[in-house]
Amino acid sequence: MPHAPVRYRSADEDSGRWSGFPFRDGDVVISTRSKSGTTWMQMICAMLIFQTAELPGTLPELSPWLDRLLMSRDEMFARLAAQRHRRFIKTHTPLDGIPIDPRATYIVVARHPLDMAVSLYHQGNNIDRARLRQLTGQPEPSAPPPPRPPLHEWLISWIHEDTTPQQQMDSLPGVMWHLADAWVRRDQPNIILVHYQDLSADLDGEMHRLAGRLGICVPPQIWPSLVQPATFGYMRDNAVRLTGPPVVIKDSRVFFRRGTSGAGREELRAAELADYRRRVAQLAPPDLLSWLHRDGHAGP
To answer: What is the pTM of this model?
Structure first.
């Protein structure tokens, strides 16, 4: 008998909203940690499903974030029920917090945790916190928050933070649990692991692999017209058209900040990188870490 999903909650999301969700044949669930390639995978799925760069809506409209508390659960379910295309749904919840339905395919995107953390740090400066509190019904803070430390100091603290995935999904323990849980499921037919660096190195090849796993046929002559819009540069140049008017993001173009790998390792000294390696070795199995850090492994 399957276990009940774990409940993951933050100030603006609640995985409990998945309870009772009516899946359909062919549903795709994109499960990633923050700043690990979520929007990129949404765009790839959009290209494969619609097979045109002229999408019939913005990515948040076509691929809504089910867990997010910006609209009611009933309204979210109604919007998804009204979609006639093959649905591809965004979540930042690990797979153990989502119903695993045999009719759906689950795509988990992994990114080097240090790169994810650097992107997360910069993303924090691009969020309108007051607007987010207003939309999610959070109270105003009684005092101004303390100033954020510089990136290097913040990153060291992030590596050593003692927390749990349920308390902080974007912590290092949260990131590693999200990936470790997917890693043990990687041989299941409806679970797909994708590495951010593989998307960077061979977007065409990864899109072909995903199309095959999703059972999507694409005429060979239109492949180039689908791959190019899924590049980082295209998405950054078309940020407003793809993501719509900003809701809690201050600047849509800044949301697509860098897109390359290595920023986290550039920020740390050799001894600090060694500390990071010791820390993640406590949180995940060696084969996952070798794949995640690109230690000579080609794929899962």
So the answer is: 0.90
